[in-house]
């Protein structure tokens, strides 16, 4: 753990069990495996010979069929993400994740049992609802449970788990695509039961978010939860001080009145600015075009004349997993803004090169090598920056009273654009429609240039701040470009004797 202290320059910030702080966040990140694996399986399944012969009358999926089967998951996830606060704000973050795994499992059962398009589509919708709920709660739980010195890296691990899920899907697809029976697609789909079971039983053990208990006025439970998460006694001064700050900040937030969905879009407490940043960064993450590679990569490489598209897709997934690691390591050193800016540059340059070379030298050997090489640099740039950091930003920037609802809106934005891109892409690249092929990367490259401008003017630097200090940042710093110079005050607790009294009473009850 000394390496971690050195890496994050946090020697004076670390209190309690470092292993527990990291372990809890990493396990919850496992939810990303469900998301990534489910996303990754469909690319290979639609390219399998047995599936095309069984699920179609012509031996090939039309652009409309590919669009519907692929994108319908995202339609489910949109509604799942929007409904997540009903669970996470009522039952809790932990029970919300348990509910999501149950819904997801029902969808997996239907997909595994399918022998035609209709049941497969229904199963993907239901699984998508589960993934949508999960995608809105995982970064929420991680942000609320992790200490500030490791919070960004922990939430980034959610994206890393997604990349691992994508890689596992590519590996399983590679192993089964040659089968001439239903096992070619049923095995990859059924393996998802394992991921759901691991997350379900793990969440039975982990504590609830202490901030959820504060929101519900259950301070003794919040104290116990915080004690478990930090690995310190409930009467430790560090635990008491942290809980006091959470309580005092929430009491301040409540002074704005009761909370409704519309409060996510009010100007009070800079909330309108925050929700605009969150929704936009999630939309732009999808507009980078990353899911073009993971939804349609196998088919795209196949149509480009690459001899083994399944291996090429596997390479993309390996790059995706490996390149996420530097982003996790650098997030608390370089900060959010710098990584997002450089990531946008790397993606944009890579995509314009793919588009230009693919247009000038279509289906040539040299063009295919360039396509693979710069697709790799594009994936690497995304994996180290925009992949994890979009989730980090939305997990951090919202006040407690509207955090669950706001994160849900942002996750829904991600899935809405995910659906639109997944549905439109086959028509963009299909030879019977727009026939853009490699030219589609001109669109993605232009969008990533917008990513750079958006971060420069709008995204605040939140490195090294508690969630409560981030509230103060948005209240007092008018410009994102000046946010890196922000110095927090001593906090709300010093001006709130009621918070101190409440925590003392909670300690006595524990």
UniProtKB/TrEMBL annotation:
It is found in: Membrane. Keywords: Glycoprotein, Membrane, Sugar transport, Transmembrane, Transmembrane helix, Transport. Residues 24-463 form the Major facilitator superfamily (MFS) profile domain. GO terms for cellular component: plasma membrane. The chain crosses the membrane at residues 21-48, 68-88, 95-113, 119-141, 153-175, 187-206, 275-298, 310-332, 339-360, 372-394, 406-429, 441-459. It comes from the Eukaryota. Gene3D superfamilies: MFS general substrate transporter like domains (1.20.1250.20). It is a multi-pass membrane protein. PROSITE patterns: MFS, SUGAR_TRANSPORT_1, SUGAR_TRANSPORT_2. One of its GO terms (molecular function) is carbohydrate:proton symporter activity. Pfam families: Sugar_tr. One of its GO terms (biological process) is glucose mediated signaling pathway. Belongs to the major facilitator superfamily. Sugar transporter (TC 2.A.1.1) family. This is LANO_0E00320g1_1.
């Amino acid at each position: 753990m000394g390496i971690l202290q050195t890496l994050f320059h946090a020697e004076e910030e670390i209190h309690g069990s470092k292993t527990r702080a990291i372990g809890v966040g990493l396990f919850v990140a496992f939810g990303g495996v469900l998301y990534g694996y489910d996303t990754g399986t469909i690319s290979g399944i639609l390219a399998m010979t047995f599936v095309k012969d069984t699920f179609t009358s012509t031996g090939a999926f039309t652009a409309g069929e590919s669009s519907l089967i692929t994108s319908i998951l995202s339609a489910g996830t949109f509604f799942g993400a929007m409904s997540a606060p009903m669970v996470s704000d009522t039952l809790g973050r932990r029970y919300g994740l348990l509910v999501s795994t149950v819904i997801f499992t029902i969808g997996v059962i239907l997909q595994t049992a399918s022998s035609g398009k209709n049941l497969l589509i229904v199963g993907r919708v239901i699984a998508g609802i589960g993934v949508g709920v999960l995608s809105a709660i995982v970064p929420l739980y991680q942000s609320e449970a992790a200490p500030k010195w490791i919070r960004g890296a922990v939430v980034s691990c959610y994206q890393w788990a997604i990349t691992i899920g994508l890689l596992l899907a590519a590996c399983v697809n590679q192993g089964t695509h040659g089968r001439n029976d239903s096992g070619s697609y049923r095995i990859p789909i059924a393996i998802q039961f394992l991921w759901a079971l691991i997350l379900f039983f793990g969440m039975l053990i982990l504590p609830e978010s202490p901030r959820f208990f504060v929101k519900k006025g259950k301070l003794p439970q919040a104290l116990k939860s915080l004690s478990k998460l930090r690995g310190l006694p409930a009467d430790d001064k560090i635990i008491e001080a942290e809980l006091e700050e959470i309580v005092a900040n929430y009491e301040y937030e409540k002074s704005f009145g009761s909370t409704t969905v519309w409060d996510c879009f009010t100007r009070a407490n800079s909330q309108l600015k925050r929700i605009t940043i969150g929704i936009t960064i999630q939309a732009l993450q999808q507009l980078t075009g990353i899911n073009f590679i993971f939804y349609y990569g196998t088919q795209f490489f196949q149509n480009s004349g690459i001899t083994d598209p399944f291996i090429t897709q596997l390479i993309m997934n390996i790059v995706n997993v490996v390149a996420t690691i530097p982003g996790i390591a650098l997030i608390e050193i370089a900060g959010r803004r710098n990584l997002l800016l450089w990531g946008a540059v790397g993606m944009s340059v890579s995509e314009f090169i793919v588009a230009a070379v693919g247009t000038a030298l279509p289906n040539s050997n040299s063009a295919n090598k360039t396509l693979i090489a710069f697709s790799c640099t594009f994936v690497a740039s995304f994996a180290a920056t925009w992949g994890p950091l979009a989730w980090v930003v939305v997990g951090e920037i919202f006040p407690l009273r509207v955090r669950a609802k706001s994160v849900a809106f942002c996750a829904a934005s991600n899935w809405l654009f995910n659906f639109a891109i997944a549905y439109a892409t086959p028509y963009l690249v299909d030879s019977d429609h727009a026939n853009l092929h490699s030219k589609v990367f001109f669109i993605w490259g232009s969008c990533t240039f917008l990513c750079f401008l958006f971060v420069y003017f709008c995204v605040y630097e939140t490195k090294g701040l508690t969630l409560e200090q981030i509230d103060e940042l948005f209240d007092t710093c008018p410009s994102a470009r000046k946010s890196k110079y922000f110095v927090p005050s001593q906090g709300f607790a010093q001006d709130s004797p009621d918070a101190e009294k409440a925590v003392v009473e909670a300690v006595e009850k524990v």
